[in-house]
Design a protein that fits this description.
Layout (H helix, E strand, L loop, with lengths): L5 E6 L5 E6 L8 E7 L2 E9 L12 E7 L20 H14 L11 E9 L10 H10 L9 E9 L2 E4 L3 H4 L2 E10 L3 E11 L1 H28 L16 H20 L5 H16 L4 H30 L14 E5 L7 E7 L2 E10 L5 E4 L4 E4 L1 E6 L16 H15 L9 E10 L4 H15 L9 E10 L2 E6 L3 H6 L2 E8 L2 E9 L6 H23 L15 E8 L3 H5 L4 H10 L1 E8 L2 E8 L2 H15 L7 E10 L2 E7 L2 E6 L20 E9 L6 E4 L7 H10 L1
Parallel strand pairs: 5-6, 16-17, 27-29
Antiparallel strand pairs: 1-2, 2-3, 3-4, 4-6, 7-8, 7-9, 9-10, 10-21, 11-12, 12-13, 13-17, 14-15, 18-19, 18-20, 20-21, 22-24, 23-24, 25-26, 25-28, 26-27, 28-29
Length: 714
């Protein structure tokens, strides 16, 4: 006997129905829900500890999205045949949910919170990540965990000129927009996506369209929570110890000094940090040793708040920033290409104290990135990796491998650049960005360096792409939009809004908020200010390189692609791969064959053009159709009493009868030709019954008898 849960169904807005179910699965979690659309089902759970750990002054939120292979009727890859660590796609979806939820928890709530979203059933045409945040937000709404929601999140596309909410996989081929938007009832909280050079106005219109759909989902979450008798009063907590008198004293004694440090406009972040630190250390020295032992933790906490307000007030009141810039000013930029002599393409991009060294590697189909997920699988021939070592910020910490942040930043840069990547590029292309210095906007530095490195490699991108990170300060009814934010401005500010694009439009964006939401008029200003910044940066990098080089580097692999009829694929490969292996060995090339659309696509890659041409000639000979009357240079394969068999084209043998060797009668071929000799022959016929080829050598030789007769006739 199955247990009955509580269910609510609502229309997505276009006739597609979404159902929310609780009370049936995972009932020991603080909140759980199953979201279902079509055959896609997501189980979301949330659990929060009752108390915060000692000394924790932040929100330890973890969000994990995982696609179960069984959901799609598939087996996991690998030796153990079970789900292992999250894939990059799962990490990116986890980040989308995390970034949407995190700003809505109370600032003083520090208990561990774990949100888990599992794809338990998959529909091949439905993109499940579009419903992950809806599931997570509903699970939280069903719990007693403090949260300033509800919120939800949708994907918005534009198919044939019309906006679509949560488009299916089949719709995306015709969409010029793929954007995830999260919002509360009132404000936008998170945006991320890629676009085919759309305008700022179109982007705002897409966000507004998404917001209406989100409001519909939020209304249904609220109604569902009431239907399920979710707790109206959320749990009480007390995770912070405060001393109001000490807080007021710290503000009074240090604010003016911190404001003076901020106003100094020092461009060196380490010097600024030391100056701010000296204000604190000098202040701590005014306390007795006993007082310091008891109060240092709280004093540091309150002094952080002092810094926060001093920096923000300086910007709002005087329109002046930590490094002395105005709100719309961009830091100094320098760039260089062809820095790495052995790379196929390379570039350095430095903006202020942020620097990316980016390389490009060109390869064959064998180098494609293989994706094997429960829902998405296939191969990717253009990909980007982003590395953020500790020394880039002057820190020493162990290297524990690629983190979620690196995956997310690399993905944003990839989305920005892939919009201009040439569809006819024959290579697999890997871009690697190593951040060597960081003080804000390192992912945007990756976009700029990636553009330069691709052009340096000779990859014919459609247009250069640049990126900029925008910030926001709001307080006292005022706000300031900041261009090209510093790391400190990201930390102390209310927004990190990254915008990438060409001179003609936006190709990717990512927005994270630390406040409840972003009014549309502020978003419009940020986008317009970002456009001006992008164009300024574009002008700067164009001074270094403004278009792709006319050719690839001399040491880059040479690659050509030809198509052949499908029936010739076997002939090129040969029995057990004999022919293709022989060609690769003798020419020093790599040959990859792929069958699609009833044709064979043959890629030939080598270190130099001569090797590629040699392999190309041999393949063309294999696929060529022998023509009677044509002359070929063939290799003697075997000698028999009645003649010799000549391989006059790869894989094609013909008989050179003993009577066709010379113009005189021969008893054998000894002393005339032997095995392994190269012999010029003419195809003189094809047996209509057997298809065997008849060759002649003598027709290519002078006929002494004919010459004698002609001489006598004279």
């Amino acid at each position: 006997m199955s247990q009955t849960g509580i269910t609510k169904t609502f229309d997505l807005g276009d006739g597609r129905m979404v159902s929310l179910e609780t009370g049936k699965l995972a009932k020991q979690a603080d909140g759980s829900v199953v979201v279902k659309i079509g055959n896609t089902m997501l189980l979301a759970t949330v659990v929060a500890n009752k108390d915060a750990k000692e000394g924790v002054d932040f929100l330890p939120l973890s969000v994990d999205y995982q696609e179960k292979f069984a959901a799609a009727g598939k087996f996991p890859g690998g030796f153990f045949k079970r789900e292992a660590r999250l894939s990059e796609n799962e990490i990116l979806t986890s980040r989308l949910v995390d970034r949407a939820l995190r700003p809505l928890f109370p600032d003083d709530f520090h208990a561990d919170v774990q949100v888990m979203i599992s794809l338990i059933s998959a529909d091949k045409n439905i993109q499940p990540d579009a419903y992950a945040c809806l599931a997570a937000a509903t699970a939280i709404a069903l719990s007693d965990i403090p949260f300033n929601g509800p919120i939800s999140e949708v994907r918005v596309g534009r198919v044939d000129g019309k906006f679509v909410i949560n488009p299916n996989f089949s719709d995306m081929a015709n969409s010029d927009l793929d954007m995830m938007v999260a919002a509360s009832e009132k404000d936008i909280t998170m945006v991320e996506g890629e676009m085919k050079e759309i305008s700022e106005q179109d982007m705002v219109a897409a966000i507004k369209f998404a917001h209406e759909a989100i409001r519909n989902q939020i209304r249904n979450i609220v109604e569902f929570a009431k239907q399920a008798n979710a707790p109206v009063t959320k749990r009480e907590y007390s995770h912070e110890n405060n001393d109001a008198e000490l807080k007021e004293k710290v503000y009074k004694d240090t604010y003016d000094k911190a404001y003076a440090v901020a106003k100094k406009g020092d461009k060196d972040k380490h010097a600024r940090s030391e100056a701010f630190g000296k204000v604190l250390s000098d202040y701590l020295s005014t306390f007795s040793e006993e007082e310091r032992a008891a109060k240092t933790g709280l004093i540091k906490k309150y002094y952080h708040d002092v810094e926060y307000h001093a920096v923000r007030n300086l910007i709002l009141d005087e329109k002046k920033r930590l490094d002395g810039r105005g709100t719309a000013d961009i830091r100094p930029i320098w760039s260089e290409v062809d820095y790495l002599p052995s790379a196929h393409g390379s570039a350095i991009f430095t903006r202020g104290e942020t620097q990316s060294l980016t390389s490009v590697t060109l390869g064959t189909k064998l180098d494609q990135l293989k994706i094997d997920g429960a829902v998405i699988s296939g191969e990717q021939r253009f990909y980007l990796h982003y590395n953020f070592p500790a020394f880039s910020t002057g820190e020493a910490r162990p290297n524990r491998g690629v983190g979620r942040r690196e995956v997310g930043h690399g993905n944003l840069a990839l989305r920005a650049l892939k919009q201009v990547f040439p569809t006819d590029c024959p290579y697999t292309v890997r871009v690697v960005s190593d951040i060597l210095e960081s003080n804000g906007s390192s992912s945007m530095a990756t976009v700029c360096a990636g553009t330069l490195a691709l052009m340096d490699a000779g990859v014919k991108i459609a247009k250069p792409v640049t990126g900029i990170a925008m910030g926001l300060i709001t307080a006292k009814g005022k706000y300031a939009v900041l261009s090209d934010i510093l790391g400190d401005e990201d930390h102390l500010g209310d927004m990190d809004f990254k915008v990438c694009g060409t001179k003609d439009g936006i190709t990717a964006c990512q927005m994270d908020l630390k406040v409840d939401g972003l009014p549309y008029e502020v978003m419009v200003q940020a986008l317009e200010q970002a456009k001006a910044g992008r164009l300024h940066i574009l002008n700067e990098i164009s001074k270094t390189l403004d278009k792709a080089r006319g050719d690839y580097k001399p040491h880059a692999p040479r690659l050509v692609q030809i198509t052949v009829p499908k029936e010739f694929i076997g002939a090129i490969i040969g029995p057990g791969g004999k022919i293709i292996q022989e060609m690769q060995r003798e020419t020093g090339t790599t040959i990859v064959i792929e069958e699609k659309n009833e044709m064979g696509y043959v890629d030939i890659a080598g270190d130099n053009q001569e090797a590629v041409e040699a392999a190309l000639k041999r393949i063309r000979n294999i696929v060529a159709v022998p023509e009677v009357g044509e002359v070929y240079e063939g290799k003697v394969k075997s000698i028999l009493n009645f003649g010799a068999f000549i391989e006059f084209m790869p894989g094609k043998d013909g008989l050179l009868h003993i009577s066709e060797v010379e113009h005189r009668r021969l008893d054998n071929l000894e002393g005339i030709i032997k095995e392994g000799d190269l012999v010029k022959v003419k195809l003189i016929g094809v047996d209509p019954k057997t298809g065997k080829f008849k060759l002649s050598r003598k027709v290519l030789l002078p006929n002494p008898n004919k010459e004698k007769q002609e001489e006598e006739a004279k």
